Amino acid sequence: MCSGILLKRHSVFSCNRDVLNAADVCESEKSRTLSLIGLQVPHIQEVAENYLSYSTPVQADNHGIKSGLDMKSIATLLQSETNIEQGRALHDHIIKIGLDHNQFFENMTLNMYGRCGALEDAHFMFLSSSKDTAAWNAMISVYTQYGFEKDALQLFNEMLHQSIKLTIVTFMSVLSSCNHPSALMDGFMVHSHLVENGFEGNPLLGSALVTMYGKCGSVEAALIMFHKLYHRNVISWTTMITILADSELGEDAFRLFELMQGVGISPTNITLLSVICGFHNPYMLDMGNMVHGTIVKLGFDTDSFIGTSLIKMYGEMDLLEDAQHVFDKLNNRTVVSWNVLIDAYAQNDQGQKAVELFWEMHDVGIKPDDGTFVSVLNACLSLNSIMDGKVIHSRIKATQYEHHVVVTTALVNMYGRFGDLDEAYSVFMNMKHRNTVSWNTFLSAYTQNGMAMEPLQSFYQMLQEGIMVNKLTYLSILTACEMLSALEECRRFHAMILCSEHKMDCSLQTAIINVYGKCGELEEASVYFDSVQQRSLVLWNVMISAYVQHCHDKKALELFDIMQMEKVGLDESMVVSLLKACSNLSTYDKGMSIHASAIKMGFDNQIDVGTALVTMYGKWGMLEEANLLFSGLDGRNVITWNALIAVYAQYGHIQEAMHFMQKMNGHVQPDKFTFISILNNIGTSSTIEEGKYVHALIVSEGLEQCTNVGTALISMYGECGDIEAARLVFDKMYEQSVVAWNCMLSTYAQLGLGKIAFNLYLDMLNEGLKPNAVTFLCILSACSHSGLLEEGLSCFASMKDDYKIEPKAEHFGCIVDLYGRLGELKEAERFIHRMQIEHHTLVWRTLLGACKRHNNVEIGIRAAEHALILDPKSPTPYILLSDLLTENQMWDEIAALKERMIQRGLGDFLDGLKAWGIT
């Protein structure tokens, strides 16, 4: 082939490299003809016959193209060619014989390149041709077929701008490019031009408009166009039925199906397939049975496609016997039929039957495909059998699907759900091709198993690999942020989402507010919540729950009032949060009002709501009402029993609480919280026998080694003064957490055993445990109560220097108290100024208390002044100072103090002052 011909055919390609060669991208599409170009074939055929009827043979050396071809033969080859290399050779032959400027052959060649999927070649032909209407139509069709809808619409707009004549084929082609909800406005625009050009009554375009509006999500517009059709054939009826079924309007699809038969049009197998696809719910069973009857009547019951759809329908309705019956009647059971039946059993928690079907399929010689493996792996999850899953995995390794992205993703999902993250990681890392879905599945596997650090690290690797993230990716990452309370990371991802093209929908908004709430950033959560224009009930739930979780109960109820003004409904989760807020605040009227709303909406007998009601009335001290509500609940679980036991224990009714625990044992098994709620309220030596009894029950239940239970036992024995029993429990614990050590230290501190506590603290450090802020509070308190100045100061210094823990008011207060107990009041005052903690009321009150003990009026007055300036409404500094002044008979100062209290509105506390006794 001469270089001139090559240059002539490819001269413009260098400036159009941005156009994708679809032959390279979509190799599997080579054998397919362009459906819309196919609509032009009759037109081309007619022109070819008229134009070429007088053709004479052309002799030429055509480089692979047979000599002696006449123009009609060349046109025939162009019309049928699907191999790009042969097509290009044919084009070279056309150039060689001088037909390349013939408009008819230009358009035929353009169509040929489109059919072969060679967009770059087709685009060149379009640019270099005379560009009549047929060329424009062909190029629009090519763009539409290969997913370049925007380019197709741009070409259509250029046609309008250049006043190119629009034909039926033009509109058929461009309407096909409007195939997504985002293209609805473009569809309206094309429709208006169609009307302007007088084509509204065309039956082909009428059906195309129905299809276009259906794909763009406007079912109403599609129905209007359907009813406007002058001649409705089986295709147009089927199209409309399909749109309704795909839009989850199965009942409407069924009514149209009945209407279609009523006007005498018999459904085809495609019609029947479409209407069946609209039935998903059990209440649609009667409609499904009627369509099934029509299928049998028309003789389609053995059709594999229709049969497979029926199996899917019955499977979704949990009618597995019917699904099996349809499957058994099929003459030709395809791999898809087997897949759908396997999936039906898997989705209905009959994993064993699904796995059996997989091996039966293998035995009868049907080769599984990717859908089979995905379904059977889901069945293994339903069966809760990782061993079956591993057997299937080994079977996959022996097939071509070992590296198939859909199958390997299903494997990652299965291993992740079973908690085998090592295997999930191995499968994922061995994947040859990873897409967004496989990455999302991998990230989710970690978050589902409580591991949050790995998803955050993997997310950045995902970006480095150029994988496109989507909403599910962000949801997994935000879940990881919530688990880690990673506030800064959440802010970063929030900004990324806002800067991306992703729509900030309800699920993302909820996840973001959830993280802010979990991190205690309630103001930030509130600001973002207020910025959301359309707030769903879920969003209100999350915001109110965040307030309640962080004890901002008043704000939660205020937000609920705003929610009611906006006419937002209630759900069970919301009621539970509100009842908790009411129980914390003791807002009786509000709580009872919410209770009434719960009754009205039928939530009061729901177990979560019922449990919250028991807790609320119990916290209010209304134990009889709590008991009555408890008795009326159906399906009481361990949480409900624990709620009742806890409220009785909190009010000191230990005997009653233990009675309920014994009664509970006949219904549900007590758990660690059952015992903890009782232990936490046994605090005097008079009830230590009950504590020992509960301890025995804990041992019998095998819960003694539970960290929380062991800690509660230590605390209980400490409260009862039995330090030996407390230490015995501590020493027997297999796993002594920091919490357990803290509890033991606190017990020694309360009993004034500071030296023992300090030695225990040293043992804790020797064990390699890292103390926290609570540890230091316990040991400083112990040193304070025992007057261990050197040890206390050493621990305080270690807290800051060795463990980088910033002391809080309570820690400073312990040091002030330690100096105070030793009479070192000036040193205590200097410590306050040296630490620059003059703004803490607690340290001044502590110092004032020490001055009262040691009768130091000078420092006491200064400490009182600081405390009163910081908290003028608190009666404690007045009472302590009054006692100090009284001891020193400073009556004028006492009178002035009395007047100051009256001015501050604290006159009610005067009766408590020693200075006035009986006034």
Overview of this structure, please?
With 919 residues, the chain is mainly alpha-helical. Among the domains are: 1-177, no CATH class; 232-332, Serine Threonine Protein Phosphatase 5, Tetratricopeptide repeat; 829-919, Serine Threonine Protein Phosphatase 5, Tetratricopeptide repeat, CATH 1.25.40. Helix content is 70%, strand content 0%. The chain is built from 54 helices and no strands. Helix 8 runs antiparallel to helix 9 (133-145), helix 19 packs parallel to helix 21 (335-347) and helix 49 packs antiparallel against helix 50. The radius of gyration is 40 Å and the shape is elongated. The model is unreliable at 1-64 and 913-919 (pLDDT under 50).
Oligomeric organization of the protein chains: single chain
How many helix segments?
54
Chain-averaged pLDDT: 84
Radius of gyration: 40 Å
Sheet-strand content, in percent, reads under 5%
The termini sit apart by 124 Å
In short, what is this structure?
By secondary structure, this protein is mainly alpha-helical. Among the domains are: 1-177, no CATH class; 232-332, Serine Threonine Protein Phosphatase 5, Tetratricopeptide repeat (Alpha Horseshoe); 829-919, Serine Threonine Protein Phosphatase 5, Tetratricopeptide repeat (Alpha Horseshoe), CATH 1.25.40. It comes from Ceratopteris richardii.
